[in-house]
Amino acid sequence: MATILTVHGTFASGQARGEKWWQEGSPFEAHLRELVEADSGELRWQPVIWNGLNSEASRRLAGVKLSEEMLALEERGEPYCVIGHSHGGSVISAALLECANRKNRLAQLGAWLTIGTPFIRTIKHRFLFSRLSGMGRSIYVGLIVGGLIGLVAILESIWRVSQLAPEADRRDMMLFLGKAALPTIGLTLLSLILLYLLILGLQRNLLLAHKGKIVAFAAQSFKARWVSLRHANDEALAGLRSLRTLDLDIFSKRFAVSAVSRFVVLLVLLAVVIPLFWPAAMKALFELMKEYQRGAIRSVAPDGKLLGDGHDVLVNARLLLGTGALVLLSVADPFTSWMNTWIRTHIDPAVNFELNSVIPMVTILSALIAVALLWLIQLLAVALSYFFSRMLNPVAREQIRATGFGSDTRGDKAVDTRDFPMWLKEGKPPLPEVLAQEIQATSDQAAAAAISNFRRALGTLALSKGVGETSDVLSVYLTWDELIHTSYFKSARFRKFVAYSLAQVKGFRATAAFKQDPHYPLVAAWYEDIVATPSRTCQAEPAGLRPGYVPQYGVEG
Fold first, then answer.
1. According to the model, what pLDDT value does residue 179 have?
2. Torsion angle (degrees, nearest 10) of CA 380, 386, 390, 396
3. Residues in contact with 136: Cβ distance below 8 Å, sequence separation at least 6, in sequence order
4. What pLDDT was estimated at residue 128?
5. Distance from C-alpha of 550 to C-alpha of 531, rounded to nearest angstrom
6. Closest-CA residue to 276 (of 225, 320, 241)
7. pLDDT(348) > 80
């Protein structure tokens, strides 16, 4: 008996049986069974189902699940291969690291195939604090702060006693306190060190890709059995690779000017309106302004006491307006004095010019102050908008990268994507040009059909009421075969390439019908170019290859 484990990619989860390439009963399984068989016994097809989220944490959990399936096959001594598409290949990589962590070389694993897989590269957070959960950070900081406070308290006690003790007894007292305090200080520091080491130990199994010994073990054990099948123009690989150099400004330098201006004006209005309904504030304002027995101030308190005691909104409004007028007049006092001096000197010495008696002048002054205030608010809004754009753009770009990479783990963060796992140092060539063109032609045909379908869908999209309905419409008119990334399994010769790769390892063999297939020599040559060439991919003969295997060459037929 031999087993093929299949691992689906992102957003491709489902039931064990179905039409998708990885499911039991799929066209891909049927075709593969025509091409490959077990050396002895039954050829078993076993999907490994995970939640399919674009999440590094989910992929690592799926890797743990896959590693358990692989170890179970190891215990039974059953040969097997693993095939993963898209981030299903990332799940396989995580599973292999899990097995490397257990020092298991997976003797029964013949080959692990990754198809169109964008391998995420991560970097470890520098500080242990950044690798902890919210609760872990709280406990960590609390214990460290508590320990430091204890040390400071001990040192302060020693200092105080040294100051209070008599001069003659101070030396003996200091020696006694030193002997008592040093063990306490030592135990406190030792506890903090042990706490750090404990937390560090708990993090050991979370960042396997950053452990030198585990990485070396995985590369030495599994590199030679890797079959990488990827299209040079795969959209998923190219798109994720472009995220690393993303330099898009999401927020323009003036993005918040309008919003900040409205917000500040609203604050000013609230600052004026709220006191009208706040008796304590109005009484305090009246106490401050009652010495100015002029105009509106005198009218709201004919007997020296505020009418309504701060509860009458109309009275409060008159008091507020009167206060504003007094402030304006106070600001205009230098102008009033200059006008009186000029008029008495040049026109009539008996004239006494008072600004508060010239209502238009007060109105003009109020308007000028309002314009100046709005101008200052605009300047403030521009400055704040520029400041926040400089702050938010890097954060937004980082969040876009994190979302694209599915970076949601605590210990490390995704920064890039590669054509090979980060525990390897090199990748392998893309698919041969002839096969790549065939896959691209399949996706182009689907894209051409989707254009006319999409035109018919435009009206429905315009009438859709929400994201859910829009997604439903898109799922009807788009099959996602429009992408190269999802078109690999539509190519018959690609399926033969996968079958040939499986047939070269222990426990599997090509069927008699496949050996008679006119494309058999061609896929053998492709396999030699991509997988079996030592100078390109590995330094030693792949451990999973059938002893005595000699690749066959041929031309396209």
1. 65
2. 100
3. 199
4. 64
5. 13
6. 320
7. no
Report the 10 Å Cβ neighbour count for 405. 23
* Whole-number Å distance between alpha carbons of 99 and 63: 10
Those residues with Cβ within 8 angstroms of residue 552's Cβ, 6 or more apart along the chain or in another chain: 520, 521, 524, 525
User: Each residue of 381-420: pLDDT tens digit?
Assistant: 888 888 888 888 888 888 888 888 888 887 788 888 899 9
- What are the residues whose beta carbons fall under 8 Å from the beta carbon of 324, sequence distance 6 or more? none
Q: pTM for this one?
A: 0.69
Q: DSSP assignment of 503-519, as one string?
A: HTBTTEEE-HHHHTSTT
| Domain residue ranges in the chain | 2-124+209-243+420-445+488-537, 128-206, 257-392
Helix (H, G, I), strand (E, B) or coil at 54: coil
The yes or no reply on domain 2-124+209-243+420-445+488-537 and CATH 3.40.50 is yes
Type and span of the H or E element at 158: helix 134-164
Average pLDDT over residues 544-557: 34
Task: Give me the pLDDT at residue 210, please.
Answer: 85
Q: What angle do CA 359, 363, 364 make, to 5 degrees?
A: 120
Question: Is pLDDT at 519 greater than 60 in this prediction?
Answer: yes
Q: Are strands 412-418 and 119-124 parallel, antiparallel or unpaired?
A: antiparallel
